[in-house]
Input
Amino acid sequence: MLSVRGLSVRYGRSVGALEGVDVEVPGDGVLAVLGGNGAGKSTLLRAVSGTLGLYRGAITEGEISFDGDRIDRLDPAVVVRRGVVAVPEGRQVFARMTVEDNLRAGGLGAASAAARTAARRRVGELFPVLTERASQRAGLLSGGEQQMLAIGRALMSGPRLLLLDEPSLGLAPQMVGRIARIIREIHAQGTSVVLVEQNATMALQVADHAAVLEVGRIALSGPAAELAASEDVQRLYLGGHAESQAQADAEEAEARTHRGRRTLSRWVG
Ligand SMILES: Nc1ncnc2c1ncn2[C@@H]1O[C@H](COP(=O)(O)OP(=O)(O)OP(=O)(O)O)[C@@H](O)[C@H]1O
Ligand SMILES: [Mg+2]
Output
Protein backbone atom coordinates (compact mmCIF):
# COMPACT_ATOMS: atom_id res chain seq x y z
CA MET A 1 0.00 0.00 0.00
CA LEU A 2 2.69 2.49 1.04
CA SER A 3 6.04 2.00 -0.57
CA VAL A 4 9.11 4.13 0.12
CA ARG A 5 12.07 3.43 -2.16
CA GLY A 6 15.61 4.76 -1.87
CA LEU A 7 14.44 7.89 -0.07
CA SER A 8 17.00 10.58 0.74
CA VAL A 9 16.07 13.86 2.41
CA ARG A 10 18.03 17.00 3.17
CA TYR A 11 17.19 20.11 5.19
CA GLY A 12 18.56 23.34 3.73
CA ARG A 13 22.26 22.92 3.08
CA SER A 14 22.89 20.63 6.05
CA VAL A 15 23.89 17.00 5.72
CA GLY A 16 21.24 14.48 4.77
CA ALA A 17 18.61 13.51 7.34
CA LEU A 18 17.64 10.32 5.45
CA GLU A 19 19.84 8.25 3.16
CA GLY A 20 18.43 5.58 0.83
CA VAL A 21 15.54 4.52 3.04
CA ASP A 22 13.28 1.64 1.94
CA VAL A 23 10.10 0.79 3.86
CA GLU A 24 6.79 -0.81 2.98
CA VAL A 25 3.43 -0.87 4.71
CA PRO A 26 1.28 -3.70 3.41
CA GLY A 27 -2.44 -3.11 2.84
CA ASP A 28 -3.57 -4.02 6.31
CA GLY A 29 -0.54 -3.45 8.47
CA VAL A 30 0.89 -1.50 11.35
CA LEU A 31 4.52 -0.57 10.77
CA ALA A 32 6.55 0.61 13.75
CA VAL A 33 9.50 2.91 13.03
CA LEU A 34 11.94 2.92 15.93
CA GLY A 35 15.09 4.92 16.54
CA GLY A 36 16.74 7.37 18.88
CA ASN A 37 16.66 11.18 18.83
CA GLY A 38 17.59 12.62 15.47
CA ALA A 39 17.46 9.25 13.67
CA GLY A 40 15.09 10.67 11.04
CA LYS A 41 11.74 9.24 12.17
CA SER A 42 9.80 12.50 11.94
CA THR A 43 11.56 13.31 8.68
CA LEU A 44 10.26 10.08 7.19
CA LEU A 45 6.67 10.96 8.20
CA ARG A 46 7.06 14.49 6.85
CA ALA A 47 8.27 13.09 3.53
CA VAL A 48 5.28 10.74 3.28
CA SER A 49 2.75 13.44 4.23
CA GLY A 50 4.31 15.93 1.80
CA THR A 51 5.07 18.45 4.55
CA LEU A 52 8.89 18.59 4.30
CA GLY A 53 8.65 21.97 2.60
CA LEU A 54 7.20 23.47 5.78
CA TYR A 55 10.50 22.56 7.49
CA ARG A 56 12.71 23.69 4.61
CA GLY A 57 13.42 20.07 3.81
CA ALA A 58 13.34 18.35 0.43
CA ILE A 59 13.53 14.90 -1.10
CA THR A 60 16.80 14.59 -2.99
CA GLU A 61 16.39 11.00 -4.19
CA GLY A 62 13.93 8.15 -4.25
CA GLU A 63 10.18 7.83 -4.49
CA ILE A 64 7.09 7.32 -2.36
CA SER A 65 3.98 5.66 -3.69
CA PHE A 66 0.62 4.94 -2.20
CA ASP A 67 -1.67 2.38 -3.81
CA GLY A 68 0.65 2.34 -6.80
CA ASP A 69 0.60 6.12 -7.42
CA ARG A 70 3.52 8.44 -6.75
CA ILE A 71 2.72 10.89 -3.93
CA ASP A 72 6.16 12.40 -3.35
CA ARG A 73 5.60 15.48 -5.50
CA LEU A 74 2.10 16.28 -4.25
CA ASP A 75 0.82 19.14 -2.18
CA PRO A 76 0.11 18.12 1.48
CA ALA A 77 -3.65 18.78 1.04
CA VAL A 78 -3.73 16.47 -1.98
CA VAL A 79 -1.92 13.76 0.01
CA VAL A 80 -4.69 14.04 2.66
CA ARG A 81 -7.35 13.67 -0.04
CA ARG A 82 -5.58 10.53 -1.24
CA GLY A 83 -6.13 9.11 2.26
CA VAL A 84 -2.79 9.66 4.01
CA VAL A 85 -3.07 11.73 7.20
CA ALA A 86 -0.38 12.57 9.76
CA VAL A 87 -0.54 13.34 13.47
CA PRO A 88 2.68 15.33 14.02
CA GLU A 89 4.77 15.08 17.18
CA GLY A 90 3.81 17.11 20.23
CA ARG A 91 -0.01 16.71 20.33
CA GLN A 92 -0.83 19.71 18.25
CA VAL A 93 -4.40 20.72 18.98
CA PHE A 94 -5.99 24.13 18.50
CA ALA A 95 -5.79 25.03 22.19
CA ARG A 96 -8.28 27.91 22.16
CA MET A 97 -10.88 26.06 20.12
CA THR A 98 -13.37 23.61 21.62
CA VAL A 99 -12.85 19.88 21.29
CA GLU A 100 -15.78 19.67 18.86
CA ASP A 101 -14.41 22.50 16.69
CA ASN A 102 -11.03 20.73 16.57
CA LEU A 103 -12.80 17.63 15.27
CA ARG A 104 -14.83 19.73 12.83
CA ALA A 105 -11.58 21.20 11.47
CA GLY A 106 -10.28 17.65 10.88
CA GLY A 107 -13.51 16.82 9.03
CA LEU A 108 -12.91 19.52 6.41
CA GLY A 109 -10.82 16.94 4.53
CA ALA A 110 -13.64 14.36 4.47
CA ALA A 111 -14.97 13.15 1.14
CA SER A 112 -18.63 14.01 1.86
CA ALA A 113 -21.04 15.09 4.60
CA ALA A 114 -22.06 11.45 5.08
CA ALA A 115 -18.40 10.42 5.44
CA ARG A 116 -17.97 13.21 8.00
CA THR A 117 -20.94 12.00 10.06
CA ALA A 118 -19.65 8.41 9.98
CA ALA A 119 -16.16 9.55 10.99
CA ARG A 120 -17.56 11.59 13.89
CA ARG A 121 -19.45 8.52 15.11
CA ARG A 122 -16.28 6.42 14.86
CA VAL A 123 -14.26 9.01 16.81
CA GLY A 124 -17.00 9.12 19.46
CA GLU A 125 -16.81 5.35 19.88
CA LEU A 126 -13.03 5.24 20.03
CA PHE A 127 -12.74 8.25 22.36
CA PRO A 128 -15.92 8.70 24.46
CA VAL A 129 -14.08 11.33 26.50
CA LEU A 130 -13.96 13.66 23.47
CA THR A 131 -17.75 13.66 23.30
CA GLU A 132 -18.01 14.24 27.05
CA ARG A 133 -15.67 17.24 26.71
CA ALA A 134 -17.02 18.42 23.36
CA SER A 135 -17.65 22.01 24.43
CA GLN A 136 -14.44 22.39 26.47
CA ARG A 137 -11.43 24.26 25.14
CA ALA A 138 -8.85 21.77 23.86
CA GLY A 139 -6.00 23.49 25.74
CA LEU A 140 -7.59 22.45 29.03
CA LEU A 141 -7.53 18.71 28.27
CA SER A 142 -4.90 16.49 29.89
CA GLY A 143 -1.88 15.43 27.81
CA GLY A 144 -3.39 12.02 27.11
CA GLU A 145 -6.72 13.54 26.12
CA GLN A 146 -4.97 16.00 23.80
CA GLN A 147 -3.22 13.06 22.14
CA MET A 148 -6.61 11.39 21.69
CA LEU A 149 -7.99 14.59 20.20
CA ALA A 150 -5.05 14.88 17.80
CA ILE A 151 -5.66 11.29 16.63
CA GLY A 152 -9.44 11.82 16.53
CA ARG A 153 -9.02 14.95 14.43
CA ALA A 154 -6.86 13.02 11.94
CA LEU A 155 -9.49 10.26 11.74
CA MET A 156 -12.18 12.81 10.88
CA SER A 157 -11.02 12.93 7.27
CA GLY A 158 -11.41 9.15 6.95
CA PRO A 159 -7.78 8.22 6.22
CA ARG A 160 -6.71 4.86 4.85
CA LEU A 161 -3.20 5.36 6.22
CA LEU A 162 -2.57 7.12 9.52
CA LEU A 163 0.93 8.39 10.38
CA LEU A 164 1.50 8.77 14.13
CA ASP A 165 4.59 10.55 15.45
CA GLU A 166 5.43 9.44 19.01
CA PRO A 167 1.88 9.29 20.39
CA SER A 168 3.13 7.89 23.72
CA LEU A 169 5.66 10.65 24.42
CA GLY A 170 5.44 11.89 28.00
CA LEU A 171 2.31 9.90 28.87
CA ALA A 172 1.95 7.80 32.02
CA PRO A 173 2.13 4.01 31.47
CA GLN A 174 -1.63 3.50 31.84
CA MET A 175 -2.36 6.11 29.16
CA VAL A 176 0.32 4.57 26.90
CA GLY A 177 -1.53 1.26 27.21
CA ARG A 178 -4.81 2.92 26.27
CA ILE A 179 -3.29 4.60 23.23
CA ALA A 180 -1.77 1.26 22.19
CA ARG A 181 -5.17 -0.48 22.36
CA ILE A 182 -6.76 2.35 20.41
CA ILE A 183 -4.13 2.04 17.65
CA ARG A 184 -4.90 -1.69 17.37
CA GLU A 185 -8.61 -0.88 17.18
CA ILE A 186 -8.06 1.76 14.47
CA HIS A 187 -6.12 -0.85 12.53
CA ALA A 188 -8.83 -3.50 13.08
CA GLN A 189 -11.32 -1.07 11.55
CA GLY A 190 -9.31 -1.06 8.33
CA THR A 191 -6.88 1.87 8.62
CA SER A 192 -3.19 1.09 8.15
CA VAL A 193 -0.80 2.79 10.54
CA VAL A 194 2.82 3.95 10.57
CA LEU A 195 3.74 4.30 14.23
CA VAL A 196 6.89 6.26 15.01
CA GLU A 197 8.01 5.59 18.57
CA GLN A 198 10.95 5.75 20.92
CA ASN A 199 8.90 3.48 23.20
CA ALA A 200 9.98 0.27 21.48
CA THR A 201 8.18 -1.96 23.97
CA MET A 202 4.82 -0.42 23.17
CA ALA A 203 5.45 -0.11 19.44
CA LEU A 204 6.55 -3.72 18.98
CA GLN A 205 3.45 -4.94 20.80
CA VAL A 206 1.18 -2.94 18.53
CA ALA A 207 2.94 -3.40 15.17
CA ASP A 208 3.08 -6.27 12.71
CA HIS A 209 6.27 -5.02 11.08
CA ALA A 210 9.04 -2.79 12.33
CA ALA A 211 12.02 -0.87 11.02
CA VAL A 212 14.85 0.65 13.04
CA LEU A 213 16.34 3.94 11.83
CA GLU A 214 19.87 4.85 12.81
CA VAL A 215 21.25 8.21 11.68
CA GLY A 216 19.08 8.35 8.59
CA ARG A 217 19.44 4.74 7.46
CA ILE A 218 17.40 1.61 8.05
CA ALA A 219 19.55 -0.54 10.32
CA LEU A 220 17.10 -3.43 10.80
CA SER A 221 13.64 -4.35 9.60
CA GLY A 222 11.29 -7.32 9.71
CA PRO A 223 8.30 -8.79 11.49
CA ALA A 224 7.74 -7.01 14.83
CA ALA A 225 7.93 -10.27 16.81
CA GLU A 226 11.31 -11.06 15.24
CA LEU A 227 12.70 -7.63 16.06
CA ALA A 228 11.39 -7.84 19.62
CA ALA A 229 13.33 -11.07 20.01
CA SER A 230 16.54 -9.74 18.41
CA GLU A 231 19.45 -9.18 20.74
CA ASP A 232 20.43 -5.88 19.13
CA VAL A 233 16.97 -4.44 19.58
CA GLN A 234 16.74 -5.67 23.15
CA ARG A 235 20.09 -4.22 24.06
CA LEU A 236 19.62 -0.87 22.31
CA TYR A 237 15.92 -0.19 22.55
CA LEU A 238 14.26 -2.43 25.12
CA GLY A 239 16.87 -2.65 27.90
CA GLY A 240 17.46 0.92 28.95
CA HIS A 241 13.94 1.92 28.15
CA ALA A 242 12.26 2.03 31.57
CA GLU A 243 14.80 4.52 32.86
CA SER A 244 14.73 6.83 29.84
CA GLN A 245 10.93 6.76 29.77
CA ALA A 246 10.74 7.70 33.46
CA GLN A 247 13.13 10.57 32.75
CA ALA A 248 11.12 11.71 29.71
CA ASP A 249 7.88 11.51 31.69
CA ALA A 250 9.35 13.64 34.45
CA GLU A 251 10.53 16.25 31.94
CA GLU A 252 7.19 16.30 30.18
CA ALA A 253 5.30 16.68 33.46
CA GLU A 254 7.53 19.62 34.32
CA ALA A 255 6.94 21.24 30.91
CA ARG A 256 3.20 20.69 31.26
CA THR A 257 3.11 22.42 34.62
CA HIS A 258 4.77 25.46 33.05
CA ARG A 259 2.40 25.43 30.09
CA GLY A 260 -0.55 25.01 32.46
CA ARG A 261 0.53 28.04 34.46
CA ARG A 262 0.90 30.13 31.32
CA THR A 263 -2.53 29.06 30.04
CA LEU A 264 -4.08 29.69 33.44
CA SER A 265 -2.61 33.16 33.69
CA ARG A 266 -4.02 33.91 30.24
CA TRP A 267 -7.47 32.85 31.35
CA VAL A 268 -7.38 34.35 34.78
CA GLY A 269 -5.77 37.48 33.39
N1 LIG B 1 13.74 21.65 10.15
C1 LIG B 1 14.97 21.14 10.21
N2 LIG B 1 16.04 21.81 9.74
C2 LIG B 1 17.30 21.28 9.77
N3 LIG B 1 17.57 20.05 10.25
C3 LIG B 1 16.55 19.31 10.73
C4 LIG B 1 15.20 19.83 10.74
N4 LIG B 1 14.41 18.87 11.27
C5 LIG B 1 15.21 17.85 11.57
N5 LIG B 1 16.49 18.09 11.24
C6 LIG B 1 17.64 17.17 11.39
O1 LIG B 1 17.35 15.98 10.69
C7 LIG B 1 17.75 14.84 11.44
C8 LIG B 1 16.55 13.94 11.68
O2 LIG B 1 15.62 14.63 12.52
P1 LIG B 1 14.20 14.05 12.89
O3 LIG B 1 13.44 15.12 13.56
O4 LIG B 1 13.59 13.42 11.70
O5 LIG B 1 14.59 12.90 13.93
P2 LIG B 1 13.66 12.04 14.88
O6 LIG B 1 14.07 10.62 14.70
O7 LIG B 1 12.24 12.37 14.65
O8 LIG B 1 14.12 12.52 16.33
P3 LIG B 1 13.27 12.71 17.68
O9 LIG B 1 13.11 11.34 18.27
O10 LIG B 1 14.14 13.56 18.51
O11 LIG B 1 11.96 13.34 17.34
C9 LIG B 1 18.39 15.39 12.70
O12 LIG B 1 19.77 15.45 12.50
C10 LIG B 1 17.82 16.77 12.83
O13 LIG B 1 18.70 17.63 13.49
MG1 LIG C 1 10.77 13.15 15.84
Remarks:
- Residues 263-269 have pLDDT under 50 and may be disordered.
- The two ends are 51 Å apart (CA to CA).
